[in-house]
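Honest question from a wet-lab person: if I give you the sequences of every part of a complex, can you actually get the arrangement of the whole thing, not just the pieces? Trying it with mine:
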Amino acid sequence: MVSDKQLAANRRNAKRSTGPKTLAGKSTASRNALRHGLSTPSKLNGPLPLRYEKLATALAAGRAPKADMARLAAELRFHLNQIENSRLFQLRMAMAAMDTSFPCPGIEELEGRALLALASEMAKLERYARRLRSRLSKVMKALDAN
Amino acid sequence: MVKSKSDPGIPADVIEIFGPPAVLPHRVEDFYRLLKALAQAYLPREMADWCYLWDIAMARTEVRQIASAKLATIMLHRERAAIEIVRTDSLRFVGADPHALTGRDIGLDTYDLSGEAKLDLPKTYAILDSFDLSHDAVLDVAYILASPILAPLEALSFTNLGIARAAAQDLERRHERLDRRNFHGGAPAIVGPENYVTQPRIARRARSDAGAVKTDDASDTASASDGRNTEGHITAARQISGAE
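Yes, you can. This is the full assembly:
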């Protein structure tokens, strides 16, 4: 049982230390609950890595009026690639955490074990990927249509 | 597109734009080999085609990854399977009572079917190796024991096969669309299969507008098979009507 004096001290201390104070700290704390950010809707016309800008240009070649649509396709591919990279990162982490003491498994067996451990996580990521793929498929078809 | 120096099958700009594939290092070579084989089969014409091919290659690589996982699962269960077989297969241990075998006899410190087995691994593997683990029966039993765990992997594999199939279908349909468009010379009046019907109708209407003689089936077929010459047909029809 906590004494009244201790309780009061705890509350005083909590008031003094709870929450980030600086703007940078608040910005960091605002991302505490962020896991992968894949469920947020993609922002159109956001900055893209250079190679995806090149992809947008290549997709728009010969279809000048559909440059926006080509950029959207490139953007969706970028998000899809993010999911794939996230999946790869998780797989690598799981493989690194595997016990390889005895008997030392081959790389494929290790990969298999890691994938097995991550099966449910992979299925969750697949949900986001499916949504993006469906959107991308429609955009690609629209890009070809007259 | 410029062909890459390292891999003549895949253009350098494709490799540059798509970047390194999101696969483990030991699968990268397989991935590019598969992509190259797909490119030879589907003959990509522009970057959009490469997008589809890339998706197919990624999905197929993932299917192979999952196959490894399935194999690993079965291999992990082979010890339990071997123990089950050792316990029940009296033919292979003539003179020994299989029910008298304890976990300790085959390298288990503790053995409980429902719980986790704590293994004295070097001893277990030495004994299991002497039982010929490549024996089909061991792997069959291991597969049965592992099947509840394999279910989510089967689902993932099925999803990826679906992705690969959908991308391949989309690519084939795209090529059909482009072929049809090129065949008709530029953008067709109406997109879709109706196009084959509407083009001769357009030509026939143009000819009748120009006062040409009524077209027969043969000329319909001719205009249908060469829709891009619709303008030419109109001109020809005008010339015919003028001559008549």
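Two things worth pointing out. Confidence is low (pLDDT under 50) at residues 90-94, 109-117, 187-207, 210-244 of chain B. The two ends of chain B are 53 Å apart (CA to CA).
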